[in-house]
Amino acid sequence: MRILGIESSCDETAAAVVEDGGRILSSVISSQIGTHAKYGGVVPELASREHLRAIVPVVRMALEQAGTTLGDLSAIAVTQGPGLVGSLLVGITYAKALALTHRLPLIAVNHIEGHIHSVISQQLASGSPVTFPALALVVSGGHTHLFEVGEGFVYGLLGKTRDDAAGEAFDKVAKLLGFGYPG
Question: 17 to each of 39, 59, 81, 129, how far by Cα in Å?
Fold first, then answer.
């Protein structure tokens, strides 16, 4: 079973092909740091436009590196939120179009859950699986959450920030100190 995953929640366009739920066949990321650096942070409208430019080549490259065609896929997964609305719409619309055209199931993925799953997948791939229960700290530009994660990916929120996230704070402090983006 091969699944194409598409991620466009903020300032990176990414696609990966995963086999049997754990073996990563390809992972391609197009960064927008160069676009946003002069502003000291992500500009949502520019992020959306960059996703439009990058999504087709990124997905093509991920499929090519995995030696996979759209006909070989069992499903397409896409980040559905949270994130920048315009950026999410680019990924979701493209994923929906591919899924509809190729009659594939579409799997909506929560961005925060994706962060947690990626660590668990990497640990499994490295041969040192995560011991449960575990704590998951998700610190990103738009959110900061602390979760308790149990067997079978049952998790509960222990706490989160109310407004700015730690990642955003790093960018703002870096700008005040005269450092580059990202902070």
Answer: 33, 9, 20, 21
Could you read off the pLDDT of 88-104 as tens digits, one per residue? 999 999 999 999 999 99
Taking the C-alpha atoms of residue 183 and residue 177, their distance in angstroms, rounded to an integer, is 10
Specify the pTM: 0.85
The helix/strand/coil state of 125 is helix
- Would you say the C-alpha torsion 75, 76, 79, 80 has a positive or negative sign? negative
**Radius of gyration from C-alpha coordinates of the chain:** 17
Looking only at the bridges linking them, the beta strands covering 23-31 and 75-81 are unpaired
The confidence score (pLDDT) of residue 115 equals 85
Reference 112, options 92, 90, 82; nearest CA is 82
CA 124, distance to chain mean position in Å, is: 19
Tell me the per-residue pLDDT of 20-38, one tens digit each, with 9 for 90 and over: 977 889 999 999 999 998 8
